[in-house]
Amino acid sequence: MSFTGKSRKSWIEETLFKRECVRFIPSSWDQHRCVPVCQICQNLIRCYCGRLVGEHSWQEPVPPLSFYAASGQEMEEDWSIEVHTRASPTNAYGTIDFEDTATRVCRAKYVRVAVDSKPEALLQLMLREWQMERPKLLLTVQGGTENFVLPPKVMQAFSKGLITAALSTGGWILTDGINTGVSKYVGEAVKVFGGHDLRKRNTVGITPWGVIDNNMDLIGRDVFKPYQPLGNPLSKRVCLNGFHSHFLLVDDGTLGKYGCQQGLRRKLEKHIQQQKIHPRLNQRVPMVCVVVEGGPSIAFTVLDYVSSAPPVPVFVFEGSGRAADLLSFLHKQTANDRYFNKHSPDLVWQLLLKKHFYVQQITIFDSESDDQMAPDAAILSTTLKGTKASPAEQLNMALAWDQADIAQKDILVYGQHWPVGSLEKAMLDALVLDRVSFVKMLIDNGMTMSHFLTVERLEDLYNTTQRFLQHLVEDAKQTSLPAGYRLSLIDVGLVIEYLIGGAYRSSYTRKHFRAAYSRMQDNVSMDIYSLMFSIHPVKKKKKDLQFFRTAQPYKHTRLSSSLGDASLQVLFNFNDLFVWAVLQQRQQMALFLWQHGEEALARAIVGCKLYRSMAFEARLSSMYDNIAEKFKADSLEFGKLAVDVLDCAFRQNGQMAMKLLTSEMEAWSHFTCLQLAVSSCHRPFVSHSCTQTLLTDLWTGPLNMRKNSFMKIILSLLLPPAILLLEFKSEAEMCHVPQTHEAMLFGLDSVKSTPAPQATADLVKSVSNVTVQWLPWITRIYDFYTAPVVKFWFHTMSYLCFLMLFSFVVLVKMENRPSIQEWLVIFYIVSTAVEKTREVLMSEPRKLRQKLKIWFSEYWNISDFVAILLFLVGFALRWHSDPYRTAGRIAYCLDIIFWFIRVLDLLAVNQHAGPYLTIITKMVNMFFIVVMMAIVLLSFGVSRKAILSPDEEPSWSLARDIVFQPYWMIFGEVYAGEIDPCAGGNSCPPASFLTSFLQAVYMFVQYIIMVNVLIAFFNNIYFDMASTSNKLWKYNRYRYIMTYQERPWLPPPLILLSHMALALRCIYWKLLGNTEPGERELHLGHEDRKKLHEFEKKCVEVYFHEKNRDVQSNQIKKIRAIAERAEEMSVMVGEISEKVNCIQHSLSELDCQMGQLQDLSALAVDTLTLLTASDSLQKEEARLAQCRINPTLQHVLPHSWTLPHRSNTDCDVPTTERNNLMRLAQTIPFTPVSIFGEEVSIYTLEEAPCDADADSPSASFWSSKGLSAILQPLSSEEGSLDGGLRQGCRMLCTWAEQDVLKPGLIYVAKAFKSEVVHVWQKHFPGSTALQLCLREIQQQRAAQKMMQVFNQIKPHDMHPTPRFLDVSLVLWHSNGQWLTIERNMTGDFRKYNNNTGEEITPCSSLEDMLLAFSHWTYEHSCKELLVLDIQGVGEELTDPTVIMADDQSGGKGDLLFGPDNLGVAAINGFLQKHTCNLCCHRLGLKEKSPITSDEESTHQPPAN
User: Fold this and answer.
1) Catalytic residue among 864, 1429, 1446, 1460, which?
2) What is the percentage of the chain residues whose pLDDT exceeds 90?
3) 0.85 exceeded by the pTM?
4) Which domains does the chain have, with CATH numbers?
5) Does the active-site annotation cover 1282?
């Protein structure tokens, strides 16, 4: 099924269906029987589908009147899905919005599908509609559906292993999707270890539609539904887990019945197993079953998996409980060849033993074992071993998962037999799939790139999906590619040349490669044609042959023999793969390939250039503007890599590093690394010390000058014999500098290492006849005049002479015939023109158009071209009579400007003047500011001219008048005499007064604003370029040096002699039939080049070693810093512990002293007692007096405080023992309060279950016996506690029986005011205060219980957990008054709403939650109760008001709660004034309308 022409919505509704029961089949007739149908039957008897009569969707317009057969007939019809349910288009699909209990919002796609849906349609829905990634592994999780507790280690191993295995391989996880059992643990694992990306969080829940709580809320077509997973503990339904990404809600027409999803889930699993793991790989999607806990049915499920074809491996977490532990035990017993007796009572054991338990397909993971591997690796290893696939297929699976470590450990083992071509195919797949670790692994295992890489494979790599490369081919070929066009290597070569630019020529576009490629294509076509004729002797079109050739790149059976001869001429290496990785935008692969093979420095520069050019092309194309920044970052990475390697090489060996820069590379168009860096505009590379040192050596040539070099050179030019006095470099010092062919004739040592060609040998023989003593002098003279610095000064001196002559010519009168000075100028300029022509023709590009394009890309070449052309025009005009001669002279005058400006290029060579010229060049690029100033100038000039000259005739002078005066006004010339055109009696044009105003505005805008903007622009450029101008000058220095290195040593006009010599030389080489050697070349022999490559490879290794060492040193520094901090903390902890020990020692000494004082005081008391007793009777009375309570206390002790009568022996306790007991009592902490106050009785509201079952609901009852306590009133210095109905007082508890109150704590006692008691006395005569207190306590207890339920069901991320204080009933014995008592709260007391519904504006999460709690109580109690008047300190609350409608609360005599219940008025007030906040929305609360007036009660109780 295709989505073409269909909307997403219509496709889902046409393909996916739901199931509804349309026939009522009673599940039981024992509850009620009647004829005809009565209301009881409709609300009592359920169908087999689980629904009542009214919940069915009937096919008939009227439901049947009887649900059972006639008398004497039996019901023989059984309910079935096929007969009694009807399929209709699904009406529930879209997105579920879960409110995550962490910090993020989780959303999931869902759809309601029929139980008999086709798995093909479901998979198409998941891949195309839900945009899920194609699965590479299927992890189906089986286990318990009820809640269970996993041990921490098992839970950690299961969570991390499952999610890591799924994320690392791109696998899918299938569960039941509910918020209980193992599915809940899967959700927790996704929460902890999963990502936020929905496409990568492929956790699919397959859940029965009928068991989902609040499933009717999900009905809607393509909707966005909020869902709160708040399950009802009394409900049999379940909630969806919020951390799943997708849900298939399986509908079989039943309600509340579990298990219908298993069949569809198994069919979907089998269908997914038949899919390819990747379009390039033939391997199917592997599957593994993960078992955690579970019941008896799990054993049958495991048996079904392991006995299926192909078998599904099972991974069991031992220690998770029940079925998992049973399977682990049986697996171990079976593995140890132990069998159970035949009379084993367990059917599951018998089934497993019957199948020999399939030991190979089941893996037991023990998280407690120390020998176990990581859980994710264990799951993947189990999948590889359990599928029973061949090694090649296992390698494909590991390749699709990108798990090279598993492949290295379990697949690429020693002694493994591999079919021919399997590893080459694996390498090709690894390159296409961008599996860097696999490419590294295969190379480490012996894969050679020269054997693997062929033309066909390289073209196959380039033809992988990459639209940007095709656009580059179109730009390079300047044509549009047809659909399905297959790129060739020649096309790739054109792209490389297009991106690198300049004179670069790719090896794919050279003649020898084109010839070999053409022969190869012809041989392929011939062999395929003959092969197809031998198999199918039918005519085939040329188009079919091309398709056959490109569609099967791996089958070389007959083609390999014919391809061998052609492809042997083309050897590929890591350079070709590196360029492929760069053009395919695979940065990590390119970085890996860069490390292998030779010429790593050149590859880094090429990568930098290619990425930079691709970034430029991407910016030009609006389609790829988003990847331009990525290309730029990758270019900078390779650029930094090149600089780092060069720096490392320069530190290792300076001369070898400079040889790396100057040696020509055949693979890179015979370019040097220095040429590549310059063409790539890699300024940091060219500015490096190694490069600058090389450029200095190239600039000075063989001359060895340190100081006053220009003076020595000028003197030697003026006095040639002084050349012999100069100092020259040795041959060893010049070994890294490229030499010309003429240097070979003078026997330089750098050439002797390389055998010269035959023509060169003949020349050497002819030169050998020169006298030996003249050779050093000739060598010195040659070295001097060919040095670039000497050429520069020679040409500069000649150029200055030319300027003087040219100035003389233009300053004096021009005669009819040219003077000698003019002829010299003419010869100079003509010879310069010839030299420029030679530069163009001898440049490296092949085509003249490309030569001219590169030559004109330089600014000074354009200036020279204009100067020469203008001079030739003036020279042609000067031969004619006036006025042409005058025009020629004017052309001369204008032309000399260009030649004087050319002097700036000569100054650019200087180290000090060069950077300033760079800054000036940057400042000249101010096009947009000039345009803005021109706009302002023209706007004023045109209007001014039009006002002042209304009668002007058309002429070209108008343009001059418009610009002339406004332009000079910029520089301060305001033309004051012309500001007022009417001055001096001149006629005034109309509205001439406006010109002065316009001039003022113009001067302000142009002179004040625009000129200052221009100055600020220059200032900004200066400061920006001041830091980089030196680097830019170093970069431009290469151009200056190369210009004079390639230029003939004779200056114009003598340069014509050099041109004649060059022509003779070219004719000589043509006559010999040999190719003319290049200008300059670093001649390296095979051994020298091999050493250079080894040195480069060593530098790369040293670079990575230093990089790893820096990383390790940074880690070591961090560890040292942490260790130092830990040591400092340990010292601080030690000091604190010493202080604590000192304090403890002091306290122990103080305790000993206190014990001694107590002993002395007890001894003194005993002594005094004995002295006061005169006889034994008096002594006995004294002892008894010590045992009684002191009667001088100011209050009567409560009855529970009376002490039992002790015998005489009890008082004869030894003093020492009594003192020991006293010291022991000192160790028990207590609050030292005085026992003062008044006695009260405390009655508490206790809880107890209604039935014997502990899980049954609890009931509240009052304690039958009050407990005594002593309370001492405190002064109300902290503020009044009085309210509208009650007055309060703080009390200090000094003693309490059975800890009913805590001694030493402060409590608040509240009593109803007398006027309130008087008002309610008619409703509660006799015990009004007691009844009001009881209802007040009951009211707070009700609010407390609702708050407990609220805290349990609210989302966990709503962290404040408010609670109401416990309240007890108090009887004050002194006056018989009833009060309520609760713990005193300290802090900022706040009131959040009142009993009329008014509420504060929330400003914190606590306030939002408390206001939402009031709204929740109204919804939770089915609109019967409403908790208002919420107040307290922080999370501790007190004195709520429970509002109850009058029809619910009854009369005042039946008052359920406190007297501040305002009934319907308070409810309506709340509904009108309450504004739902974020907490209300997260709790699923909706706005409510007030109760109508008909529902209001007529009685209004007194307000609080």
Assistant:
1) 1429
2) 20
3) no
4) 97-369 (3.40.50.450), 373-429 (no CATH), 689-790+1054-1084 (no CATH), 813-907 (no CATH), 908-983+1002-1051 (no CATH), 1238-1495 (3.30.200.20)
5) no
